[in-house]
Every structure is written in C-alpha cells, then in structure tokens.
Amino acid sequence: MSSTGSTSYAEAPNKTLTAAGITFAYRELGPEEEVPVVFFVHLAGTLDNWDPRIVDAIAQHRHVIAFDQQGVGGSSGTVPRTLEEAADDAYAFITALGYTTIDVFSFSMGGMIAQDLIVKHPDLVRRLVLTGTGPRGGKDMDKVVGTTYWDVLRAALTRSDPKEFLFFNRDAVGKKAGKAFVSRLKERTVDRDEDIRLSAFQTQLRAIARFGRSAPSDLSVITGPTLIANGDNDRMVPSILSHDLHARIPGSELIIYPGSGHGGIFQYWEKFVPVAVRFLTADPAATIP
User: Fold this and answer.
1) Of the residues 84, 121, 153, 268, which has the fewest C-beta atoms closer than 10 A?
2) Residue 277 belongs to a domain
3) In the chain, how many H helices and how many E strands?
4) From CA 133, how far away is CA 32, in angstroms rounded?
5) 3-class DSSP state of 75
6) Where is the AB hydrolase-1 domain (predicted)?
C-alpha cells in the first residue's frame, strides 16, 4: 500500500471533487487501499467536526475519507430536504471517487444517511459503524428539533460550544469531557472548513424530524458486520434507539458507555478507539471477536 502523505487529520489537505453537478469538499489520509472507510458526519457537522483521536487512530491502519454534504462547509449546492436525498449525494460522491465497495463510520445524522444509502445500495457497504444514531421511524427521534434549539440557547447564554450541551452530560465528568472534545476539534489551525449556515442547519433538522416520523426501513438488508455504539443518556437520539438498531440489524454488536450522552464515543474515545480499529481491520468475512 502507498500513502496519501498525510500523517494526521489536522494536516490532511482539503480536496474537491465534482459529481452530479455538485462540488464536494473532502479530506483523505492513511494508506491507499481498494476499500476505504468513509466518514458520515453529524447534524451541522463539517470536515472540522471529526474527533482527531478517532480519525488518526483508524487512519494508522485504513484509508479514511471524510466529506462535506451538499450545501455544507466547502461543498457547493443546497442542503437536501430529506436524508434519502443526502444519501443519493453520498452515493454520487463515492462512485465518482471510483469506489464500488466501502466501509462506513457514521455518527448521529450521518448514521441515518448511511442507513438510507445501504437500503438503496445494499452491496455498497461492507462493514458499518453506527454511533449515536437510530433507525428511520425511531420513537421520539423527531423531538431532536426541540432538544437542539434548547441546548443551542443554553450554550449561547454561557458562551459555550453547543456540542458541550448536546453531546455530553452536564455533570462534572461530562463537562470536562465536553471541553476536552471541543479543544481537540481546534487542533487543525490552517485551511479550516466553513461553519454551516443557519438556513442549512435548519433544513437538516427538519430532515431528521421527517426521518423520525416516517415508516421504518427494512434494515435486514444490512448483512455485513455492524458495530453500534452510544452513551446511556443520549438526549438527541434516545439511547433506546441504539438497542432498536441492534435488534433490527442481524448479527450486530452493541456497546453502551455508562454516564455519557450523545457523544459517548468522544467521552470514552480511549476505550472506543481500540474497538473501532479492531472492527475495521478484522478479516472482511469475520464478525467482531
């Protein structure tokens, strides 16, 4: 395998690719390989919202690609009204890169988009990581809108990053983990991505609510190895929905981190990273040991 030349996510160059009339912004790092790990980001997330501790650890072993959805960050176009359309955008981007098989690492809204992608293209994804997310039609998922606006307001009043409220418990441990996470996101100091626009953020929120209120998808089409992880107190995408995903996806493995919220994998990154790396570097035909 050759290398992309990037040794860390903080140093990975910004790239662009035009597909289906949209110019997608993306970054890649790690060894070249036929099957990359494509990262699907959360609500309002840009290229700069991935925890470098997780990306760098996986990129030591795998080729990692992160991208901005249409209308977000450095990508052109307009944020789609539905997550199905966002999945179509992802498919256009992935196939324009020349890949016919990928592995997926997803968080929150990214996991919802990844599910829609697989339902439409079940042979595309070989291994799947779903974190802080839930299934289409999941109970109370549509309440994310109210929770999000309330926590954004609370963050504004305390001059904090909204992710400290949305992703972490407001106890001493959670507050410390939230500040550490936000600090890690600032490690990249050059060529940073553009923040999402308010109108685009609102469109994404409505798309998630629509996803939550719609009929469930048949997730039995997901037959490859699947790792599901979350905190035990997820206020954005209720933790029970991770159990729901586990029940719907045959052979999946579920990890719930205690005393943590939506960003459980970021609070417990030191425990989660070895699990994720092992999962994503296992024999393609094998399940998690």
Assistant:
1) 153
2) yes
3) 10, 8
4) 29
5) coil
6) 36-266
pLDDT for the residue numbered 283: 79
E strand residue ranges, the chain? 15-19, 22-29, 37-40, 64-67, 102-107, 125-131, 226-231, 253-257
* Domain extent for 204: 9-281
User: Domain count of the chain?
Assistant: 1
Strands 22-29 and 15-19: antiparallel
Under a CB-based contact definition with an 8 Å cutoff, are residues 143 and 213 in contact? no
Residue 144 pLDDT grade (very low, low, confident, very high; cuts 50, 70, 90)? confident
CB neighbours (10 Å) of residue 31? 15
Q: How confident is the model at residue 143 (pLDDT cuts 50, 70, 90)?
A: confident
Q: Is the pLDDT of residue 210 over 80?
A: yes
Rounded distance between C-alpha atoms, residue 123 and residue 119, angstroms: 9
What pLDDT, on a 0 to 100 scale, did the predictor assign at position 288? 43
- The yes-or-no verdict on residue 242 having pLDDT over 90 is yes
CATH classification at residue 251: 3.40.50.1820
